[in-house]
């Protein structure tokens, strides 16, 4: 991906290594966010959850979240949308700084692209912020761990990312490459677009009165649409600035597939349970990203009226 000569965004806030701001009150534990509170390692309740996960062969994070999902409803009324990972990562400082620069360029490119798309539709695009953090971060959606992966918080219109996620993406999930990394950011910006268009609020309202299965289905539709929006960004950015190099599209499609719910559940050592999907299968995620990439049009991304996902 051609990115080094790109514009840098003014909307990046670097909280790396700042426990007072990257976390809450200097908190430095490795807790896992559970709805409105944080389980900070140990405890009988956590032990029981882990035992149940081992017995039934499911990802413990699915049991720890309040509705069995990775994305969670939060006290601020926002809906965090992120990819659950195991956390960790051992990036050196030089690599961290290079990735921070890369993230700033990709964010700037999404700003330029979505400004143009909204302007063409007679609307104004409001730029989100992006926060880099280490281990834990406090947002309008509550306290979150790096184990949640990158996420978007609607109430503060901000994307949050611990750069160690990219180490996981490359080494654990076998999705290397700078365009794979760009896809992750573009997907979260897709959630910001949904927020601006009122789609996120509509889904949240519907989920409040829906059963678990229907709520999960709506979550999958929302996530696949964000994948499609990521493809729309790539299409438009390529037309305007020729950002893609050989192999980039394959990198993006591979990344989308590698973090599909079915593959994530298999990696956790559990069974694949389609009814518990909240982001979509590997095939679905890659297909909707490709659809946005091929069309470059928001109209191609209406997952809610699609005959099949």
Order of helices and strands: EHEEHHEEHEEEEEHHHHHHH
**Binned strand content:** 5-15%
Let me know the average pLDDT.
81
Strand order of the largest sheet: 1-6-10-9-5-4
Distance between the termini: 29 Å
Low-pLDDT segments, ≥5 res: 20-78, 84-89
Question: Number of folding domains?
Answer: 1
- Number of helical elements: 11
Short characterization:
The chain has 309 residues and is α+β, with helices and mostly antiparallel strands.
How would you describe this protein?
The chain is an alpha+beta fold. The chain has one domain. Helix content is 49%, strand content 11%. The chain has 11 helices and 10 strands. The chain has helices at residues 19-22, 44-56, 60-64, 93-120, 164-171, 178-197, 199-208, 212-241, 248-258, 261-267, 282-295; strands spanning 12-14, 32-34, 37-39, 72-73, 79-82, 129-132, 136-139, 142-145, 151-153, 158-161. The strands form 3 sheets. It has a 6-stranded mixed sheet, with helices on one face. β4 and β5 (79-82) form a beta hairpin. α4 (93-120) packs across α6 and α6 (178-197) packs across α8 (212-241). The longest helix is centred in the C-terminal third of the chain and has 30 residues, at 212-241.
């Amino acid at each position: 991906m051609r990115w080094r000569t790109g514009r840098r965004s003014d909307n990046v806030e670097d909280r790396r290594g700042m426990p007072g701001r990257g976390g809450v009150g200097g908190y430095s534990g490795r807790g896992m966010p559970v709805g409105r509170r944080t389980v900070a390692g140990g405890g009988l309740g956590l032990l029981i959850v882990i035992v149940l996960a081992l017995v039934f062969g499911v990802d413990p994070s699915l049991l720890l979240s309040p509705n069995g999902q990775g994305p969670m409803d939060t006290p601020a009324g926002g809906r965090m949308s992120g990819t659950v990972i195991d956390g960790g990562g051992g990036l050196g400082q030089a690599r961290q700084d290079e990735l921070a620069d890369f993230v700033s360029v990709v964010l700037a490119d999404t700003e330029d692209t979505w400004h143009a798309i909204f302007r063409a539709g007679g609307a104004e695009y409001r730029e989100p912020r992006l926060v880099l953090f280490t281990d834990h971060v406090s947002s309008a959606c509550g306290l979150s761990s790096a184990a949640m992966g990158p996420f978007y918080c609607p109430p503060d219109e901000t994307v949050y990312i611990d750069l160690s996620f990219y180490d996981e993406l490359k080494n654990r999930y076998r999705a290397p490459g700078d365009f794979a990394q760009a896809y992750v950011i573009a997907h979260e910006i897709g959630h910001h677009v949904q927020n601006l268009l009122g789609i996120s609020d509509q889904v949240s309202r519907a989920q409040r009165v829906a059963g678990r299965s229907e709520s999960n289905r709506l979550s999958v539709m929302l996530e696949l649409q964000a994948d499609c929006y990521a493809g729309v960004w790539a299409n438009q950015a390529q037309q305007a600035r020729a950002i893609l190099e050989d192999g980039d599209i394959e990198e993006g499609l591979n990344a989308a597939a590698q973090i599909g719910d079915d593959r994530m559940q298999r990696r956790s050592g559990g069974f694949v349970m389609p009814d518990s999907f909240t982001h979509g299968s590997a095939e679905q995620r890659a297909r909707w990203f490709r659809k946005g990439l091929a069309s470059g049009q928001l109209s191609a991304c209406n997952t809610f009226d699609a005959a099949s996902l």
